[in-house]
Structure formats: C-alpha cells, structure tokens
Specification:
CATH superfamily: Regulatory factor, effector binding domain
Number of helices: 5
CATH class: Alpha Beta
Strand order of the largest sheet: 2-5-4-8-9-6
Number of domains: 1
Largest sheet: 6 strands, antiparallel, barrel
Radius of gyration: 18 Å
Helix content: 10-25%
Strand content: 25-35%
CATH topology: Multidrug-efflux Transporter 1 Regulator Bmrr, Chain A
Length: about 220
Amino acid sequence: MAADKLDYKNAFKDLYLPPKKPVLIDVPAMPFIMVDGMGNPNDEGGDYQSSVELLYGLSYTIKMSKNGKQRLQGYFDYVVPPLEGLWWMDGRELDLSDKDHYSWTSMIRQPEFVTAEVFRWACAEIARKKPLLDVSKARFQTFQEGLCVQMMHIGPFEKESETMAQMENYIEGHQLRNAISTVRPDGTIKRHHEIYLSDPRKSMPEKRKTVIRHPVVPIVS
C-alpha cells in the first residue's frame, strides 16, 4: 500500500479499533453515503444485499475517479472505509434473534473531499453503468454521533448480546444512560451501531471483528 494512501481504520484507531472492553468516545461529524431498508440482512437477493452493492458501487466509483476523466477537487488516495450499519425495530427494543423485522441504515464513510455534487456525479455514473441498481435509495449525509460507548466484538453476530451486556454494565457504572431511540437536535434518532471489520464471506464466525457502538448521555445528579 502506498505510504500516502489514507486508511481511516489506521489513522483513526479510536473510531475503528477499540479494545475488547467498553470505552467512552465522542464521535465527530463525518460524511456518509446511506441506504435505508427493512428485513432480514441474510436474505439472498434481498434489500440489504442490494443496498450493500449500491453502497460499494458508489464508494468505489468515487475512489476510482482518479483513473478516469473526472477530476474531483481535493481528491486524495484512500482505502474505502468499512461497511457500517444502524439497526432498530419499530415500536420495540432490538431483538437480535428476530432478523425478519429489522429496520436498518446501511452506510459507508466518505473522504472529506466528497460533496453533494460529487455524490450526484457518482449516482449518475452508477445509473449509467449498473441500471438495475436503484440509486434513488441512496443519500449523502453528514452524521454526528456524539458521546457513545463502544467496544470490539469478536465472534458471530448471534453472540453480540453478550458484548452489549458488558457495555450496559459499563454505562450503568459510569453515571451514563443508554440513549438509543432518543432524538438528536437535527431530528435523527440514535441507534444501535455496528462497524464491520471482517468480510463475513471470508472469515470464520468465531473470528469476525465488529465494532459495537451505543449512544449515551451523562446522568446529571
């Protein structure tokens, strides 16, 4: 890898490589391409699979613009950041065993030179090259999570509840309150957040690395 290629995971280890124990972090504003949907992420050919294809298609179109005629102002070379997801269930707490009723926002962080104009250009490119992908489902948004508790989960997704229990114990012991489902000043709702550092197609379930992040607020005495 070229020395001047920015890898966000290595440059911002506090965001992407937390320890295997809960830690408190203030997550700054970052630009994302996002796709919303519902349903089981494991359904072959389902909405989640197509959303991931769309996200990577747009992200790599922007990254590989350096090899084409389009010159993006401020472009620098980088590694496409990992896939992330916000997860919830309408009207009730998240139940990890009930995947058919998931609601989700799938998303990939974008480098700082990406603007709404760059996003629209990438959408036009994908619509031309891959007309079966519905680019209207994607949006470009700055997302600021703020104060969160996070930790590294190693193992299958089905055992995330064990990691979440550790996080909840930390929250309760540090004068904090879990803020999932509360509303930010900009109107967005705080969600259970996962960052996928392992490709599930290539990694054994027991070795998968997933950052789990929960928004919190201090308890004012």
